[in-house]
Design brief:
This protein is an alpha+beta fold. It is built from 10 helices and 6 strands. It has 3 domains: 58 residues, no CATH class; 129 residues, Trna Endonuclease, Chain: A, domain 1 (3-Layer(aba) Sandwich), CATH 3.40.1350; 85 residues.
């Protein structure tokens, strides 16, 4: 690969080591439109010459990088008749998850190459490693892939990218993998039971709630609040005049409001709780006229 700034060899990187040093100093930046590197004090040459930079999707020049192409040709040349190799194999296309589980995100990872027999049954996988596989994230990703493949019973052959293909190494490793006995499967993951999957699914689902019209809901709450306040006032007046039955009828209305609010809340009306609590508040106020009416009876 050529460096996008100076044109020198940069292995598998967009910038050579010298231009990468310039990037760290702030002399080189990446174009926000096309993704190419250019000097900070100059406009992006690619954007100037290419009027289609506003398009955010484009076809790649190739499915494989130059070094991957060399490995692909080398692997093809050493495979015996009846075997074939395919690039960019997704784990989900060759491995199934056998337990009860809703998600299989761990299988949506690509392997560089897969070798198959004449019936297209997977025989083994091939990974081309480079320095990017030394960072922590890639190590974790590679570890997960190895555990999945080990549990599925398929081997992974690794080649370290040294900017050239060692045909002798390729031939030796491919032949060894073809003649190797099936690898022993190992349970690296805990199997999810039907009950666990059902519990997880139910737990993740959001509760279904009824969403009433906001205007109607506010109107109901306002009417109930108004009538509750009026009923409390009437109850106090009836207490002063000694009319017991009207007092009981008026003072019980806030309690009814509270009960209505609780019922609506259980049916899924979210803000009905505020109606219920308003009724509870007025129900507490109802205690004042009650005590006022009972006071003569206590003495």
């Amino acid at each position: 690969m050529k460096c996008q700034i100076c044109g020198n060899e940069s292995e598998n990187y967009e910038l050579c080591s010298d231009c990468n040093t310039r990037r760290k100093k702030g002399d080189v930046v990446k174009c926000s439109k096309c993704g190419n590197w250019h000097f900070t004090n100059k406009s992006c040459v690619n954007c100037i010459s290419n009027p289609e930079t506003d398009l955010i999707y484009e076809l790649k020049s190739s499915l494989l990088s130059p070094i991957e192409k060399e490995y692909f040709k080398s692997i093809q040349s050493v495979l015996p008749e009846g075997y074939s190799v395919y690039p960019q194999i997704n784990l989900a296309s060759i491995i199934n998850r056998t337990d009860i589980h809703t998600f299989q995100n761990e299988l949506f990872r690509n392997i560089d190459f897969g070798v198959f027999d004449k019936d297209l049954k997977p025989v083994f996988l091939i990974e081309i490693q480079d320095n990017t596989h030394l960072n922590v994230e890639r190590k974790n990703r590679d570890s997960k892939i190895k555990k999945i493949c080990e549990e599925a019973g398929i081997a992974i052959v690794e080649f370290w990218n040294v900017n050239r293909v060692d045909m002798e190494e390729v031939s030796e490793k491919i032949t060894e993998a073809l003649n190797a006995p099936p690898i022993a499967r190992k349970a690296n993951h805990k199997k999810v039971s039907f009950e666990q999957a059902e519990y997880t699914t139910v737990k993740k689902q959001k509760p279904e709630t009824t969403k009433p019209l906001r205007g109607f809901e506010s109107l109901v709450k306002g009417v109930l609040l108004f009538l509750s306040f009026m009923a409390t006032g009437f109850a106090t007046d009836y207490t002063n005049t000694g009319k017991v039955l009207p007092f009981l009828l008026c003072s019980i209305f806030p309690a009814i409001t509270f009960i209505v609010g609780i019922i609506l809340h259980k049916k899924g009306v979210n803000s009905a709780a505020s109606i219920g609590f308003s009724g509870l508040f007025l129900f507490v106020l109802w205690g004042y006229p009650l005590l006022f009416w009972l006071r003569p009876l206590l003495y």
